[in-house]
Fold this protein.
Amino acid sequence: MEQQAKGPFDVKRTAMEMVDAGNGASFGRIRFEKRFHGDLDATGVVEMLSGGDPGAGSAGYVAMEHVIGTLQGRRGSFMFQHSGTMDRGASSLTVGVVPGTGKDELQGLRGTLRIDIAEGGAHSYTFDYTLG
């Protein structure tokens, strides 16, 4: 049975050293530390690589996130995989649970996360998931 978790989250962004991609290109690298509130009471650590031309409004990124805490009262950990693009300012983002990463009471976790950023920068999430 599909369930849904919602709430706000805080995020701290730390730019890391660029990664040489060769031939004059480089990847941006950023670490994010998150604190989820609400139905997902947890912390997350994200490592992101990005490339493209953000100044022109076009770029892409991939990231892995390790989440530890409780999901609607169930304690454990799991990983999200992020994949995002920005095409001349129009963005798309897919965030899903990496299969097989659910631990402890979150074994068998599957699902997708939607991130919303309100005017003013407040972040919130909607997590549609199944367990089992």
In short: The longest strand covers residues 40-53. The mean pLDDT is 95. The radius of gyration is 16 Å.
